Amino acid sequence: MFAVEQELAQLEEELSSQYGLARLKPMLALAWHLRQRDPARACTLSLDAAPLLALLPEAERRLEQARCQLIDGEAAWLDGQLDAARALADAAWEEFHRQDDSIGSADARWLRAWIEVDRGNAAASDAELAGAAHDVWRAGDRLRADVIDAAAALFAVFRNLHSANERWGKRFDPAEKGLHPAAAGWINDYLGTAAFQASDFGRAIGLLMNTFEAALATGQVRRAINVATNIGNAFTSLNAHHAALEWMQRGLDLARPTGWPMSIGLALMQTAETLRQLGQREAALELLHEALATLAPMSGSRAYAIALEYEGDLALDGGDYPAALASFARLEARGEALRQADFQSGARRGQAHALSHMNRPHDALDKAAAALALAREHGDSYNQIAALKVLAEIHARHSLPGPAPLDAPSPALHYLRQAMAVAATIDGYTVPGDLYDAVAREYASVGDYPQAYDIALRAGAARDKTHSQEATNRAVAMQVQYQTERAKTEGEHHRQLAAAEAKRAEVLQQTSATLEHLSAIGQEITTHLDAAAVFRALDRHVHGLLDATHFSIFLIDADGSSLSCAFGVEAGKALPATRYSLTDEHANSARCVRERCEILLDLNAGDDMPNLIPGTLPTLSLLFAPLLIGERVLGVMTVQSLQANAYRERERLIFRTLCAYGAIALDNAGAYLQVAATLKALSATQAQLLEKNLELEQAYKALEEVSLTDQLTGLRNRRFFLQHVDADVVMSLRGYDDPLRNGAVERENAPGKDLVFFMVDLDHFKEVNDLHGHAAGDAVLVQMQERLREVFRESDYLIRWGGEEFLVLARATHRDDAKVVAERIRQAVANRDFVLPDGTAVRKTCSIGFACFPFVPEEPRLLSWSEVVELADQGLYLVKRSGRNAWAGIYSTPEARHEGVFSRLIHHLEQALTDGEARLVTNVDEVQVAAGAKPRRLVLATDKVTPR
C-alpha cells in the first residue's frame, strides 16, 4: 500500500537494469508508490506500461490496467477533479470485484472513501472504509487492515470522542514491534487526534509529529500536509503561536508546489486562524479568502466547514455581524451534512452572537437554545458551558422573559449558575475567570454584593490558576519542541554518519576501480613509440575520464627557454599553435614548469581572465600538471572545464596518473626518435635489414592477433583462452588454504576471487542455416556476440568455442551472482528478435550451463579448470535434455568432497531426465547421495524447467 524511500530506490535500480517485459513489474510498482510523491511521473509510467500490458494474458492484463486506473484516479482526486476520480475508482473496483481481487478492491474503496470525504459525504466515506476493511481482513493484509481501521477510528473521533475510544481504544498498540511505518503513522494519527479532542495537547503534538514523519517517509504527502496544520493547531491551543506558525508554514510549503486545492486550502485557512488569534486580522482575512476560493470546488468537505467557522469568528472579531451570520448559517448546513456535532453546535452559537448584536434577541435566543440542546444530547460538557454563556450574554444585553422555572434572581444569572454547575462535573476543569466575572456582575446587578464580592475573589484565584496553567502549557510546548528538535538533530546526525560511511565505502571502491582502470590505460599509453599516437591516446582517455572542454600538452623546446603547444583540442577543435617563454609571469603553463608542481584554478563566471589564450573559451576550472621524468621536466599537461569546481581530489588523482604515464611514453618516444636518427647514419644495407626485421615483427604480430580472434564475430577464440586461463586460475586460488594440508577451503573468508565458466549454446541453430542459409546463420552469431557483450564486462573473456557455442569466463564474480548473470543471458537472447540480412526477424533462445571455480567435490584435490569447464558443459547438457531456454549451474558445498559424489549426482540426474522425471530440476535442489557411511551434499542450482 505504501513504500519507504529505500524501496523506491531499489525499484528505480531494477527498472534501469531490465529490458522488455521484465520492466513491467518494477514500472507498475514504481508508478503506484509515486502516486503522491510525483503524480505526473506516476501517470507517465502507467501510460508507458500500456504496450507491455498488451503482452500479458487477458485476466492479468485487466487487473494491472485497473491498478493503473487507480493511479490516474488518485491524481485526479488530488487535483480536485472528484467526479473524474470517482469514475476511475469505480471502474477499477468493478474489475477487481469481478476477478475477486480483495486487495485491489480495498485499494479502490480506500480512494473512494477519500473522494467522499472531500465531497462531505461522511456516511458514504464510512461505508467505503467498512467495505475496505472487510476486503483486507479477508485477504489477510495486516498493513492495509491497520491503516484502514486507524482511518475509520480517526473519523469516529470527530463525531464522538467517547464512543470512538470505546470502539477503537483497544484495537491498536503503537509500540508493537515490526509495525510498518505507514501503519504506525496512521495509528499515531488516531491517538494524537483523540488526545487533541480531549485537550491533551502536549501528548497530541508528540503523536502527530510521529505521524508527520511517517507520512513523508511513506509518500503520503497529502496526509503530511494535513498533519502539519493539526500540529500547528495544537501549538496554538498551548498559546505557543510562533511554533504554531512554523508548522503552518511547513504545511503550506509542502502544499503549494503540489497545486492540490484541498491541501493548499487547508494550509491557508489554518494559518489564517493562527494569525487571527495573534490579532493580525487583515493578514488572516486575506489568507482565509484565498482558502475559501481554493476550496470552493470541495465545498462539502470538512476543511471547507472549518474555513467557514474561521470566517465567522473573524467577522465577529471585526464587528461585521451580517457576514458572521451568513458564515455560521452555511457552517450549520455543512455540519448537518457531515453529521459532526462540533460544527453544528459552533454554528448555532456563532449565529446567536451575530443575531444578538444585530438586535434580533428572540432569534438569537432560539439559536443558543438549539446549541445547548445539541450539546446536552451528545453529553458535551464544554459545548454546554459555551452555549449557557451565550444565553446569559443574550439576556444581559436584551430584556427578555426568563426561562421557567427561573431559579435565580435574573435570567442571565440563571444560565451562568447552570454553567457553573456543569463545570463542577468536569474532572480537573478550571473555571475561567471571565465566567466568574460574569456571575459576579450579575449578582451585583441584582444587589447581592456579598455574593458578588465572594465570586470576584474566586475569579481572581481562577485567573491565577489559569495563568499558571497557561505557563504550564507554554512549558509543555517548549518541551515538546525541544524533544522534537533533539530527536531530529540526533536522527540527522545518524543519517549523516551513515551517509558519510556509505560515501567513504563508495569512494574507496571507486578509487580501487579507477586505479585498476588507470593501470590498464598506462600499459596502453606506454606501448606507443610515436609522440602523435601518445597524444591521441591521452586525449581519448582524458575525455573519457574527466570533464575536459580544453586539453593541451606543452613541451619544452630544444633551446630549453620556451614552451610550445605540441597538442591542443578545445570543444572538439584543434587549438592554434602557441608558444610561451618559461619566464612568462602570466602563463600558468610556464609557472607550472618553473615550480614543478600541480596548479589548480577555480574561477567564477565573470571573473577577469588575463591569461586566456586568444580564441579560446572562458573555462572556470583549470588544472595544470608537469610532465616529470625523475628530476627532468618534459613539459606540461592542462585540462580545463566550463563547469565550476570540476576537479576535486579524485579527478586530480586521475589527471596526475595520466601525466605520469604520458611523461614516460613521450620520453620513450623521444628516445626512439634518437635511435631512429642513429639508424639513419648506418649503412643503407643495415637500415634496410632493420626495416625488414620491423616489418616481419609487425607481420608476425598481425598474424598472432588473427590467430587469437574469431574472424566472424570478432570474439577471442579457443587458442586465446588457453593462453590466458592459467593466469586467472592462479589469481583465483591466491590466498586459499591448501585442501591437502588442512582439508578445507573456506570460501567466504578467503581473499581469492571466483571464476565462473558459462557455456552458452543457441537452441535449434541448425534451423536458421537450413531455412535461411549460412549468411543468415552468420548474422545471428554476430548479433549473439553483441548480446553477450551487453551482459558481461570488458574484463571478462568472451570466447567463440565453436559453431553456435560460446564460452564465457566471468572473472572476479561471486558464485552467488552467477544465477543472476545466467538469467540475464537467457533474457538477452529470448526477449528480442534476431534480424536476418533480408530483414526477416526470427526469435531464438539459448541454453546455458555454468560452473564455479574453485570446485571441491571430491577428496583429495581441487578440480582443474578444464574439469570445471566440463561441469559447465554437463549443466548445458542437462538444460538441453530438459527443454532448453533455461540455465543450470553446478557448484559444490564444503561438505561435498567425498570420492565419487559428483559422478553419482550427474548419473542420478541424467537417469531422472531419461525417465522423464524433469521435475527434479527445480529452482534450487539439494540432492543427497550416499557415499560410504556418511552422506555428502552437492547443490545444483537451475532455472525452473517445464517437464516435456
UniProtKB/TrEMBL annotation:
It holds the Pfam family GAF_2. InterPro entries: Diguanylate_Cyclase (IPR050469), GAF (IPR003018), GAF-like_dom_sf (IPR029016), GGDEF_dom (IPR000160), Nucleotide_cyclase (IPR029787), Rev_trsase/Diguanyl_cyclase (IPR043128), TPR-like_helical_dom_sf (IPR011990). Its EC number is 2.7.7.65. It comes from the Bacteria. Residues 679-706 form a coiled coil. Keywords: Coiled coil. Residues 753-892 form the GGDEF domain. This is diguanylate cyclase. It comes from Massilia rubra.
